[in-house]
Amino acid sequence: MLADGEGMRRRIREAIDQATANLRRLVARADGLQATQDRAACVHHFANVLFNNMRGGVFVDGYELPGRDFAAAVRRRNRAVHEAHEPFLAGLEGWVNLGRLLEDVRRRDDPNLLRLTYEYLPLTFSRRHGDPSRPWNQFTIRVRDADGQPVLAYQGNWRDIFQNWEALCWSFPGYLPSIIAKFVNASTVDGFNPYRLSQDGIDWETPAPDEPWANLGYWGDHQIVYLLKLLEACRRFHPGALEELLTRPLFAYADVPYRLKPYEDILRDPRSTIEFDRERAAAVDRRVQAVGADGRLVLGPDGSVLHVALAEKLLVPALSKLSNLVADGGIWMNTQRPEWNDANNALVGHGVSMVTLCYLRRYLAFCAELFDDAGAPQADISTEVLEWADRVQAILAENCRLLSAPQVDDKDRKLLLDRLGRAFGEYRARVYRQGLTGRTARDLRQLSALFRLAGEYLDHAIRANRRPDGLYHAYNLLSVSRDGQEAGLGRLNEMLEGQVAVLSSGAISAEEALEVLEALRASKMYRPDQDSFLLYPDRELPGFLDKNRIPAAEVEANGLLAEFVRAGETSVLSRDVAGHYRFHADFRNAGFLAAALERLAGQPRWSALVASHGRRVPDVYERVFHHAAFTGRSGTMYGYEGLGCIYWHMVAKLLLAVQECFFRAARERSAEATVRALGEAYYRVRKGLGFNKTATEFGAFPTDPYSHTPARAGAQQPGMTGQVKEEVLTRLGELGVQVNQGRLTLDPILLRRPEFLAGPRDWTYVDVGGQERRIGLSPGMLAFTFCQTPIVYELADDAAGLAVWRADGSRQDVPGNDLDAAISRSIFERSGEVVSVHARVPAARLLCPNDETDTTGLEGSGYHGAADI
């Protein structure tokens, strides 16, 4: 029995060792292995990369993809395309290099096949995305099929999966054009993205009356910023690639059977704005059965997938947002879905987002520069889209006088909203009815002029939303007057998200960024016990009996309500035993109140009073319940991302935004004191993250990422956070990894001196060929991988310099800290030609040379960074 027990323990240990080795290899592919003196940071980075891979997947073998799986994917997407190229696809045996495959496909001169090649992503280890508390989620990581064969698969909602791919692409930059294609091919002619995507295409929600979680609508908040970050990265790694694609008709539209209502209907009821076109949905389903998953895309007059240029795909979502511009308020949230993470779901309809406006500002600035720099001066754009763009540009140009005043008044705001909204509504009606019917050539620089003009309106709004305390408004409430002549704005409480957005927008200077950060730390959002920040200030919720109280003065001032009380009519309100007036308990929203008043209006006893006083009753109802300002679970719960909670993803977004401000200030040669202050502000935010705490302080294992920390408990929901994406990127920034114009720069000006090793260490990593390698590190060194190529830093007193070691044993010395385009490309492509890069780091370049590193409880624990995991 003892022998059997020993054997069982041995087999368990072997299984654990094998599983650990497999995880290390998965994490190694995405550059999760580091060796620095800050062991907590290394283990935390390993965990971030692991969870990022689990959320979005990891590329199975670099830029090698299985030919048979690619051919099968083409067949699932479009059987006609597969048939037309069957001999070619059948010849793709074994593993095929992505670059060579794209070259071969380009020569075949079929935009359908090229589009499908770009969209093919050989990802593995991805789980389905979403909140585990939701009933529709089934969490599995499928790596093998029923026969034990490897499976390449991913699926998730587009808001989550693209953020994880952003971080992944810094380790696999060659896939950036593919992921951008996947993103834009999942957007609609009216400028939105459907809910889900997978290796087989796109999907959307459909009406399900028996399913309480079912709903229709478009999320709009993450769309602009996630696409922007992918575009920015692509331009850094692949100069000229986007400019080339701007004019090439290779991209598609999703044929989502949602129909946004006419502008007047949206204005009348902004909470109910989308109709489900069942006839269209049935036609799409028939196409899918006949064609494959490409049946969910918009078809052209010839019955094949309609292809447009990238310029058009970038223009349409910008126009969609600009057509919902509420001057000095934000972007109107009127597509039945919330902003981030359901926390502000009830703002849909009444809410306008300064958050989206801030990111749109950065998007427009990027697109203006991109379009100006394009080698080809013209692109063929769908005629209907160009007419829409021309109307928006004309409307903005004709109202430029609004920009000369500090604030836009309510009347002018409504006039501008009406004109933009009707332009969008007329475009939608036309393309819903007849589709996109033709192309018109347009100078891209004319579109740049539109982007810059619109940017002036967004800059004006950002300035107008600066609060007296130095913070910025995040969300506002749209209120249209009863006569329809004015559009007023109401203000919500300060929110962390608004500060992150304005820091990321590019609209404020380095000095102004510091002012925001100082105001944030002085605000009620700062939580001293965790040295971090709440989503927005905590507050005590009223007790149950304190809710639904109508002030007596409100009842007495309204002739209808007062008469209800005198007559004992209780279908609208009643008086409780304590003497408090309350609306009927069955009213869940103002719609129930309206229905009750309508019933009473049909009775002779009440018809005249309802006619004369009934219109003011909903105003009383709103003043009692404040439904327009209701922010969902984050305003009513003390868990999840609720009241008193730190939401770690938003803190990580703040961290990344501050780092961006730091590098921009350094790049623009701001005053040294300003740059240093931004660096110190960055580390103050970083210090509040869990991996810098003890387990007692954090309430969980410190190095793991967690979703949120409530006021009355430790960190909750391990791994269930987008925090991992931001921290993967910020860690690269700390290590000085920068890419511009296709050249890799290693300039760790934000790195702290104590990260360099105090003693010798052997570091094990996995090379691009999948082999474990070991490097002996000396005191004053540290190491990490980038695109799975090891980078070794060594502190030096002299000038910066790089030594590039090649596979043939040769060494190339490079002065400074910039690698040329050829060496950089070899690293990005994971060719194996570059074995390692060694960099001399002048100590004088480090931001905080005397700062101390806190290893937070890992000293003496046996951990030596991620290499020991």
Total E-strand runs: 35
**Helix coverage percent of residues?**
40-55%
Provide the domain count. 3
Give the averaged pLDDT, no decimals: 91
Q: Taking Cα atoms only, what radius of gyration do you get, to the nearest Å?
A: 29 Å
Strand order, sheet with most strands: 1-31-32-35-33-34
- Residues in β-strands, percent: 15-25%
The major β-sheet equals: 6 strands, mixed
Low-confidence stretches: 853-869
Judging from the principal axes of the Cα atoms, what is the shape? globular
Instruction: Figure out the total of helices.
Output: 30
How far from one another are the termini? 32 Å
What is the topology?
Layout: H1 2-29, E1 34-35, H2 39-56, E2 58-59, E3 64-66, H3 67-77, H4 79-84, H5 86-90, E4 95-97, H6 98-108, H7 111-119, E5 123-124, E6 155-157, H8 158-168, H9 176-184, E7 196-198, E8 201-203, H10 221-237, H11 241-245, E9 249-251, E10 258-260, H12 263-268, E11 274-276, H13 278-291, E12 308-309, H14 310-322, E13 325-326, E14 330-332, E15 351-353, H15 354-373, E16 378-382, H16 383-398, H17 410-434, E17 439-443, H18 444-464, E18 475-480, E19 487-491, H19 496-504, H20 510-521, E20 526-527, E21 532-533, H21 552-557, H22 559-567, E22 573-575, E23 581-583, H23 590-601, H24 607-613, H25 617-625, E24 646-647, H26 648-667, H27 672-687, H28 695-698, E25 706-709, E26 716-718, H29 723-734, E27 737-740, E28 743-746, E29 761-766, E30 772-777, E31 781-786, E32 789-796, E33 801-806, E34 811-815, H30 821-828, E35 834-842
Parallel strand pairs: 32-35
Antiparallel strand pairs: 1-31, 2-5, 3-4, 6-7, 7-8, 9-12, 10-11, 13-14, 14-15, 15-18, 16-17, 18-19, 20-21, 22-23, 24-25, 25-26, 27-28, 29-30, 31-32, 33-34, 33-35
Helix pairs in contact: 2-8, 2-29, 6-7, 7-9, 8-10, 8-29, 9-10, 10-15, 14-15, 14-16, 15-18, 15-19, 16-17, 16-18, 19-26, 20-27, 23-24, 26-27, 26-29
